[in-house]
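Thread amino acids onto this structure.
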């Protein structure tokens, strides 16, 4: 089996590579990729060397991480999957992948592949929310309606049942999607954000101005979680942080991808959650290098890019 994958060799330089895949081990499965995604907020800074958490960068780098596909073969010890099952796994922009059984997430056939791809980042968003544990009557502010911000709003509304969720987002089109997913009010101008008003805040934008806004907006002894990657700008604590004795936590990766997927896939089966709308652009696998160029130049600026294979 020959695997084709996309590597970042240096700044803004992507190259296709091919290699023969080894025989699968007893606890592994072979996956034929059906679709994948570009996570713009995470991948673009690596592509153009603006990721502040990756200095100096080292090359070559693998690209991508969310993949949805079909199980083509399995090792003798694999019990949880059969040939033909659909799964989500973490192996990026590759047409075939080999992963450990416990690293793959089973996807029910009723779940659309676009919704399935979002299970990973949904779990990442859920972990941050669960660290704060807001209750139904708490007021929660989310900054930034990229993928993480929108999935955070959805989890707050559908799982935590929070009634009052506001979003800070200057882009009106993204704000409309935030409303559909559960945000009560979308604040386009940060200066219009209420002061000393919210019990909890979740920073999903990656920008220091938004982080500053959350600190102003929280009540005394309020709590916030940083869900953004920290790869755009350096965050600074403001006088509000000390004056109001705020609490802050960080969150990275998901709390339990397999457990979270049980709830998430039931949500996706029962109704149209509208999460597929996060994929504002669709490309074919071989169009990945061109798409990265367009993202970098600003020619296109989708929330998330869907990549189709075969």
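Threaded sequence (310 positions):
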């Amino acid at each position: 089996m020959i695997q084709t994958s996309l590597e970042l060799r240096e700044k803004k330089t992507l190259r296709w590579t091919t290699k023969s895949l080894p025989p699968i081990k007893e606890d592994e499965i072979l996956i034929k990729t059906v679709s994948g995604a570009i996570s713009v907020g995470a991948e673009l800074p690596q592509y153009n060397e603006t990721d502040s958490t990756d200095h100096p960068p080292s090359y070559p780098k693998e690209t991508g991480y969310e993949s949805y596909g079909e199980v083509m073969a399995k090792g003798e010890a694999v019990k949880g999957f059969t040939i033909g099952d659909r799964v989500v796994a973490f192996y990026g922009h590759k047409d075939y992948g080999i992963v450990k059984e416990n690293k793959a997430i089973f996807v029910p056939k009723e779940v659309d592949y676009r919704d399935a791809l979002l299970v990973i980042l949904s779990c990442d968003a859920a972990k941050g929310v669960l660290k704060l544990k807001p209750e139904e009557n708490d007021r929660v502010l989310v900054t930034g309606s990229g993928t993480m911000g929108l999935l955070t709003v959805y989890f707050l509304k559908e799982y935590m049942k929070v009634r009052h969720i506001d979003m800070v987002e200057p882009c009106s089109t993204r704000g409309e999607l935030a409303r559909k997913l559960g945000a009560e009010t979308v604040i386009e101008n940060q200066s219009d954000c209420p002061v000393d008003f919210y019990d909890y805040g979740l920073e999903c934008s990656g920008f220091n101005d938004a982080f500053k806004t959350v600190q102003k907006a929280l009540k005394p002894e309020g709590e916030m979680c940083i869900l953004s990657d920290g790869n755009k700008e350096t965050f600074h604590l403001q006088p509000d942080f000390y004056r109001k004795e705020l609490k802050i936590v960080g969150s990275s990766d998901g709390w339990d991808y397999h457990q979270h997927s049980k709830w998430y896939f039931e949500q996706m089966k029962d109704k149209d959650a509208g999460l597929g709308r996060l994929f504002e652009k669709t490309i074919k696998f071989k169009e990945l290098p061109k798409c990265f160029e367009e993202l970098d130049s600003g020619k296109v600026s989708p929330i998330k890019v869907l990549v189709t294979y075969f």
